[in-house]
Amino acid sequence: MKGVYRIVNVCEPQTITKNDGSQMTKQQLVVREQGGQYEDAYLVTWFGNEPLKVSQGMCIAASIRMRVNEGVYSSGDGGVPETRYYQDAVLQEYACLMLGNIKG
């Protein structure tokens, strides 16, 4: 999904160690589609070599990959397995937009 979003909140970056011993950065942020406070908002995750260089209130043009995952869970001893679904939203690429007074 591609679009223009305003950053509502930026979480602190976390360093993750992968199986091969290398490290990467994971950072989550909340973005809202442009159009007002009642537009859809998404919690997205960024994976990269360094933290994002964005701040709350910035506008970005972004590509977000949405994926639905399925898991089967049991409530314990003799519990009936239950299928649950959850959605991942990953920020694949972004560009900061410089919006302000444009003199023509």
How would you describe this protein?
By secondary structure, the chain is mainly β. The chain has one domain (2-97): OB fold (Dihydrolipoamide Acetyltransferase, E2P), CATH 2.40.50. Helices cover 0% and strands 61% of the residues. The chain has no helices and six strands. Strands 1, 2, 3, 4, 5 and 6 form a six-stranded antiparallel beta sheet that branches.
Task: Characterize this entry briefly.
This protein has 104 residues and is an all-beta fold. The protein is 0% helix and 61% strand.
Question: What is Rg?
Answer: 18 Å
Q: Can you identify the CATH class?
A: Mainly Beta
Strand runs, count: 6
How large a portion of the residues is in β-strands, by DSSP E? over 45%
Residue share in helices?
Answer: under 10%
How many structural domains in the coordinates? Answer: 1
Q: What fold name goes in the CATH topology slot?
A: OB fold (Dihydrolipoamide Acetyltransferase, E2P)
Which ranges are low-confidence, i.e. pLDDT below 50, for 5 or more consecutive residues? none
Q: What does the largest sheet look like?
A: 6 strands, antiparallel
- Pattern of helices and strands: EEEEEE
Mean pLDDT across all residues, rounded?
87
Structural class given helices, strands, pairing? mainly beta
Distance between the termini: 32 Å
Specify the overall morphology.
globular
Count of DSSP-assigned helices: 0
The CATH architecture assignment turns out to be Beta Barrel
